[in-house]
Write a structure and sequence with these properties.
- It is a single chain.
- The protein has helices at 30-44, 49-52, 114-129, 147-150, and strands at 19-24, 68-74, 77-91, 94-106, 133-138, 157-167, 178-189, 202-204.
- It has a 6-stranded mixed β-barrel.
- Helices cover 19% and strands 35% of the residues.
- It has one domain (12-204): Aminopeptidase.
- The radius of gyration is 16 Å and the shape is globular.
- The longest helix has 16 residues, at 114-129.
- It is an alpha+beta fold.
- The protein has 4 helices and 8 strands.
């Protein structure tokens, strides 16, 4: 789960003025992709230019492409975004169907909107998709930004001590085609209990990160 963060807390009172749109990827028009591309460049740019580069040229995804998106809008345009993609991952030796969550971002002036507000809209979507689990991975340094999300008992569980291997979205000569990294895994029990999540310290995406 890509998360863009900022130290700004300005705009907390604007939450109620954000309207949310749930849309399938095929419903997006060229103008939507261009607007989202600009949103991601500005939102991810402060975390490093390399994080903003994938969104050049009107591209609104970085690795894998989502199938459904939750997009928040206000009077200034795109305010927040989170995407989901159904896929099988391998946890240890067990194949698990998940809806991977990623491409999360909040416009810097609305930092306080938080991932919790996006998930309030996305959670019913995951239920409609009928997946056993929602799934995301964040860098350990970003754990504090999940605090509000974890305040709701049973909504999500964070698993530490897990390594994640993914393919890179583009193949380059003289570079490995996969990347392995330490990650905090966030699991949302949707159709099954968290007790049914397989044990294992290695997760294979067998594809690029969302």
């Amino acid at each position: 789960m890509n998360i863009a963060v900022s130290s700004s807390t300005k705009g907390l009172s604007m939450r109620s003025q954000v309207r949310w749109r749930v849309c399938w990827e095929n419903e997006l028009q060229l103008a939507d992709h261009i607007e989202l591309s600009e949103f991601f460049r500005k939102t991810y740019g402060p975390t490093g230019a390399f994080n903003a580069n994938p969104f050049e040229g009107g591209r609104s995804w970085a690795g894998a492409r989502p199938e459904v998106r939750v997009i928040g809008y206000d009077t200034r345009g795109v305010a927040a975004h989170i995407g989901a993609l159904r896929r099988f991952i391998k946890v240890g030796e067990v194949d698990v169907l998940v809806a991977e969550l990623g491409l999360y971002g909040v416009r810097p002036d609305l930092e306080g909107l938080g991932i919790t507000h996006s998930m309030r809209v996305m959670y019913p979507v995951l239920q409609q998709l009928g997946v056993p689990f929602g799934f995301g991975a964040v860098r350990p340094a970003l754990k504090e930004h999940l605090t509000r999300l974890l305040e709701r008992p049973g909504l999500a569980t964070v698993l530490s001590g897990v390594r994640m291997r993914s393919t890179l979205p583009d193949v380059y000569l003289n570079l490995p085609p996969t990347r392995t990294e330490d990650a905090l895994v966030v699991v949302f029990p949707i159709g099954r209990s968290i007790s049914e999540w397989p044990t294992g310290t290695m997760i294979e995406r067998n594809g690029p990160e969302l």
